[in-house]
């Protein structure tokens, strides 16, 4: 659900559901068949999938209850959701020290983990640490590579930055640039420089049906 351009799909994916025709058009050759539809109304039969997966997408849904209801309707065995716990992620150094405006936006759209667990009728919650050399480009992927956040192309791939806008982010990014140039960031966050992975709040919810 919310498959986008297919970045997160395992090889055994048989159907990708994505509401944006623009993103569907960017899916690479050989990707799973894409269906232009929203998570809140999926035009497939009941119990038609072994498993349903929604990665970093539930915060974009207009009707969370309807979307989770659809996952429960179509999945026979398992539902997997990757999201974040905003009570932890708001302490991420980038948001807390430099871009509080983005943190405020994240708070308004974040979905509480407990709420998701309740809607799923129960789920185990697993912590997903982010490796320092993560090849993806989501918000906290560059926690040990702070200079990446100064790259407009990197920021364009992170929805909260795109929605906040460069004009709002510019003062905080300027402070980050100054702190990197002066070495202040590295002194302040010396404890991160030898870390292999970091818990920045990402959580995997697994509901076995």
CATH class of the largest domain: Alpha Beta
| First and last CA, distance | 18 Å
* Overall form: globular
Q: So how many helices?
A: 10
CATH architecture of the largest domain: 3-Layer(aba) Sandwich
Mean pLDDT: 95
Strand percentage, roughly? 15-25%
- Strand count: 8
| Unreliable stretches covering 5 or more consecutive residues | none
Q: Can you list the strand order of the major beta sheet?
A: 3-4-8-5
Note down, in words, how this protein is organized.
The protein has two domains: 84 residues, 3-Layer(aba) Sandwich (Rossmann fold); 98 residues, Rossmann fold (3-Layer(aba) Sandwich). β3, α2 and β4 form a beta-alpha-beta unit. The longest helix has 17 residues. It is globular, with a radius of gyration of 18 Å. The mean pLDDT is 95. The two termini are 18 Å apart. The protein has 209 residues and is α/β, with parallel strands linked by helices. The strands form three sheets. Strands 3-4-8-5 form a four-stranded mixed β-sheet. A two-stranded parallel sheet has the order 1-2. Strands 6-7 form a two-stranded antiparallel ribbon. Helices cover 37% and strands 19% of the residues.
